[in-house]
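Sequence, please.
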């Protein structure tokens, strides 16, 4: 009897843990989307609210870029190794304080813009 009760308790705990883990990424995805949107707020004046503008009339329109391309560009600007259309110095200053997690959230948000 004790083994049966313990088995039921253990099984219930496993089920609850599995259900909790199954929903956790969704909460993180929402948080990342919110973070990306907040980070993009300082980009809007040059890139537009949907990333539809050529920043300062020079850069490419970044709307429609895939996440990997956006991450690569942002990391390149941060490292000082990317200088497309002479925007390297300006963009380096804009992304200098971003962590890799910030860059991923920002890239995912920009990619999601329609």
């Amino acid at each position: 009897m004790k083994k049966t009760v313990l088995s039921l308790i253990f099984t219930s705990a496993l089920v609850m843990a599995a259900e909790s883990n199954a929903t956790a990424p969704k909460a993180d995805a929402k948080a990342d989307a919110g973070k990306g949107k907040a980070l993009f707020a300082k980009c809007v004046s040059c890139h537009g609210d949907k990333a539809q503008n050529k920043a300062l009339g020079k850069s490419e329109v970044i709307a429609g870029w895939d996440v990997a391309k956006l991450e690569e560009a942002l990391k390149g600007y941060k490292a000082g190794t990317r200088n497309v259309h002479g925007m390297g110095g300006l963009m380096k200053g804009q992304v200098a304080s971003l962590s890799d997690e910030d860059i991923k959230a920002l890239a995912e948000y920009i990619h999601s813009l329609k």
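The mean pLDDT is 82.
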